[in-house]
Specification:
The complex is a heterodimer. By secondary structure, chain A is α/β, with parallel strands linked by helices. Chain A has 5 helices and 5 strands. Chain A is 46% helix and 19% strand. The longest helix of chain A is centred in the first third of the chain and has 15 residues, at 13-27. The N and C termini of chain A lie close together (7 Å). Chain B is 45% helix and 22% strand. The interface between A and B is medium-sized, with 20 and 23 residues. The structure holds adenosine-5'-triphosphate and magnesium ion. Adenosine-5'-triphosphate (ATP) is lined by residues 268, 272-273, 276, 319, 321-322, 324, 332, 337-339, 349-355, 378 of chain B. The site of adenosine-5'-triphosphate (ATP) has 20 residues of chain B, from helix 9 and helix 11.
């Protein structure tokens, strides 16, 4: 498999580190990280990752706002984006899909499940 | 009809008039003092009556609104059409009930609920509408805030849980070599998140207990100097690590309070001061007595003089830290409220410290507040009545 590069935008230190370790060591992907929306937008534009994992609830810019910014930028609008969320309400999930995100993954997440889900959503099966 | 019966008729009429006047007065007094809005409109929506309570809420005088069009005066532009058509519809029925937004003189919007009664004449023609309303702006805001704080609470509880769950599942999957640095790091994260979750649950339970009102304060004689020294030594290590000097000036003031709780307020305020101050700065903890000292035996708690009852003890925690923006000074005492700042508070707290302080101080019958200059520093004050208030 060609090496994939994922940008993870998550404000919580613990969650960010664990997801990073999981994706790097278990899936073997390269992981870029950002702790806030503004940092994430800058990284996405500069480094053009293959996919973006985006936390929904963050202080400052939240997930949907960041996603809309990504969409509004011709350099980043093609990058498939997946929401990471602890809110598992059906109506909210539907709202997110309507926004046009590639997928939504509900926290809490098991390591292998997370990787499998990402592969499914992005069609990264070999 | 004889003279005396005419005389009787006149007295009767006078009595009836007096009684009517009396009744009228009683209704007016009621309408003008009732803590509800009362308004009367004619069939076209002209204002025929408004009571004092409503006038006060909206900031107009009687003369300013009398005879005016209700919709032009009080209904926000974007709702006028809708409001007018529902008014017309309402005239066809007897009782109705609705909610709407009312525009005050200063342009503020207030939410009202109304109960309306349509008064008809003998022919059944509509004459007027009498409405009784209540301002629910505040109540709605409180409810909204409660909803918000519940969703914040869920987020705060889920965050460390997600880390713990992620960490353990990663370790359990066998996908990671247990001896590797990565695995050790994952264990560390799980440990820290567990600690944070435990602290959060403890703080929340504490706050619930404090705010339930069922708590017995168990006040006992305390000595300000002792409590301050204890808080001081408790926080000394944290201050040293941060390169901050703690300066304390005590007075042996006796007062009645729950010593554990006052100790907690002091340590919470000191820990904030340390957390939000740069190294090489100083934090001062001081105390003073407000109000006249009593002439009698000061520390005899069985014979507290009336003067001593009014005395307040004032604690002060002053720092040279980052300060607090003026518009946030009220909010920081709310649950979970934390000011976003990139360079401070790497280890995020729970945002419950000041909420707990406020509950404790208020339970004691005291007050807590802050003065601050952004970039210069903050002073947190709290007062306690010197003698316990009898409950
Ligand atoms: N001395 C201070 N100087 C500057 N900001 C302060 C100070 N004390 C409190 N604050 C602000 O008020 C917020 C709320 O304080 P609080 O003590 O309730 O929570 P916390 O310290 O963040 O977390 P916790 O005390 O629960 O560990 C802080 O996050 C900080 O933004
Ligand atoms: Mg604190």
């Amino acid at each position: 498999m060609i090496n994939k590069r994922i940008l993870l935008i998550e404000d919580e230190d613990g969650i960010r580190e664990i997801v990073q370790i999981c994706l790097e060591t278990v899936a073997g992907w390269e992981v870029l990280t950002a702790v806030s929306g503004s940092e994430g937008l800058a990284t996405a534009e500069a480094l053009q990752p293959d996919a973006i994992l985006l936390d929904v609830v963050m202080p400052g810019m939240d997930g949907p706002t960041i996603f809309q910014r990504l969409q509004a930028n011709t350099v980043t609008q093609h990058i498939p984006t997946i929401f990471l969320t602890a809110k598992a309400k059906k109506s909210e999930l539907e709202q997110f899909i309507e926004l046009g995100v590639s997928g939504v993954i509900a926290k809490p997440i098991k390591a292998q499940d997370l990787i499998d889900r990402i592969r499914d959503i992005l069609d990264w099966r070999n | 009809m004889n003279l005396s019966s005419i005389g009787n008729n006149i007295t009767d009429r006078k009595q009836i008039e007096a009684a009517l006047y009396e009744a009228e007065l009683r209704w007016h007094t009621l309408l003008d003092n009732i803590p509800l809005a009362v308004i009367g409109l004619d069939r076209n929506g002209k204002i025929e009556y408004v009571n004092a309570f409503f006038l006060e809420l909206v900031g107009y005088t009687q003369a300013e609104v009398f005879g005016k069009d209700w919709f032009k005066t009080f209904i926000p532009q974007y709702q006028k059409k809708h409001a007018y058509s529902s008014f017309k519809e309402m005239l066809l029925r007897k009782f109705t009930y609705y909610q709407n937004l009312i525009l005050t003189k200063s342009g503020e919007e207030k939410k009202f609920v109304w109960k309306n009664l349509v008064l008809r004449d003998l022919q059944g023609e509509n004459i007027s509408v009498l409405s009784i309303g209540e301002d629910i702006t505040e109540r709605q805001m409180l409810e909204q805030r409660k909803d918000e704080s519940t969703s914040v609470l869920c987020h705060e509880l889920r965050t460390p849980l997600t880390s713990i769950h992620g960490a353990l599942s990663l370790l359990a999957s066998g996908l990671l070599n247990f001896q590797s640095d990565k695995a050790q790091r994952v264990i560390k994260i799980a440990e820290e998140s567990t600690e944070r979750l435990a602290r959060l649950v403890n703080d929340l339970l504490e706050l619930e207990r404090l705010e339930s009102g069922k708590l017995d304060l168990l006040k006992q004689p305390c000595n300000a100097a002792d409590l301050m020294m204890q808080a001081f030594s408790m926080m000394q290590v944290m201050a040293n690590q941060a390169g901050i000097t703690l300066s304390i000036s005590t007075q042996a003031i006796q007062f009645e309070a729950n010593p554990d709780q006052i100790f907690q307020v002091l340590t919470n305020l000191l820990s904030n001061a340390i957390k939000f101050s740069p190294s090489n700065s100083t934090i001062w903890l001081t105390v003073e007595l407000l109000g006249e000292p009593s002439s009698g035996s000061r520390d005899d708690k069985h014979h507290s003089s009336p003067v001593a009852d009014k005395q307040q003890i004032l604690f002060k925690v002053e720092d040279q830290g980052c300060g607090i923006p003026a518009n946030k000074m009220g909010s920081i005492f709310e649950r979970f409220y934390q000011i976003e700042a990139a360079d401070f508070g790497k280890k995020r707290g729970t945002g419950l410290g000041l909420a707990i302080c406020r509950s404790i101080v208020q339970l004691h019958g005291g007050q807590i507040w802050v003065e601050s200059t952004l970039g210069k520093g903050s002073i947190f004050y709290f007062t306690l009545p010197r003698r316990a208030v009898k409950q």
